[in-house]
Write a structure and sequence with these properties.
Multidrug-efflux Transporter Regulator, Chain: A, Domain 2, about 30% strand, eight-stranded antiparallel β-sheet, three-stranded antiparallel β-sheet, about 270 residues
Length: about 270
Amino acid sequence: MKQKYTISEMAELLGVTTHMLRHYEKMGIIRPEVNPENGYRFYSVIDTRRFNLSREFLACGLSLEQCAQLMGEMDDQGTEALLKDAIAQQQRQIEKSRIAIRFMGNVLREYPRLEELVGRVWVENLPVMWRLNVSEKEKAVLTPEALAQREQWLSCLPAVYWTSRIRKDTLRCFGSGPIDYEYGLMCYENDAIALRLKLTRDVERIPGGDYLVTIHEKSDRGAFTWENLSALTDYIQREHISVHGDAFSHILASRRAGDTMRNYHRVFMKIFS
């Protein structure tokens, strides 16, 4: 059995590049022997096994730096903490994959019915949601704390989705022209908990229950106006609904028709019996 390999031989054996092997050597994961007489470098069976093990750790989601730490002089306590954190990250990724499959399934069901649903109003029972406000009338909140929290939430797409909120007080004063709204991020509470988001002072808990739901289509580039919400506001007035909560809007689909971009927005508003 061959005990020593040149860098080219080891790369050929393991199916990688010499550049990769040099990088792993730089990280301290593998360490060739150097012949003092001629300066030639040789890798051993130990190096092949350490390289293969590090690739397995990488496939589990660890970074190369973490692989080097794990295979270095880290004590048992540090090893346990690193692996527990890696397991938690993999569990979080499983949740994200589950939610992504659900999201794409919903899109698959809803796309063929978009035109049919535009302008209709119906009632849906929705679960509790969390909302992180990230703007004041579309001007971003840029404090370090707000930016860090926004980044954390955005790492959870598509469980987290962008929404515009129209305050209930605004909805009580039907008018014309642009509508005032706040930009933010929302997530179902169960998904937020599964993805380890925190219910901080900047996160609002939106009640579950019955919501009026409609879909409107927007193809012009102007601001959102009362006309975009006409199906919802007409329904509120026709059914004499005087007690309701805020309304939330998020993009559901987008299609191109010639030179026109047609966006479909889902709007849902809390109602109380």
